[in-house]
Design brief:
There is one protein chain. This protein is about 65% helix and about 0% strand. The chain is mainly alpha-helical. It has a single domain, classed as Histone, subunit A (Orthogonal Bundle), CATH 1.10.20.10. Helix 1 packs across helix 2 and helix 2 crosses helix 3.
Amino acid sequence: MTDGELSTAAIHRLIEKAGASRVGDGAVETLREILENIAVQISKDAIDFASHAGRRTVRSDDIKLAAKKFS
């Protein structure tokens, strides 16, 4: 498995929390990669929103606004 920012154990727990009784390593790794890519994209968009507002600090509202396109 490749190194990532999110732990595979946390991803495994999320899949189980969704109702899976068994979870394969490949599923965990794939979801981890997808979630990390989405998180980076949301973060980049939130940085743009903060910058547009004249701030260098990314706030919760910036993250929420950036995440809307994924919900």
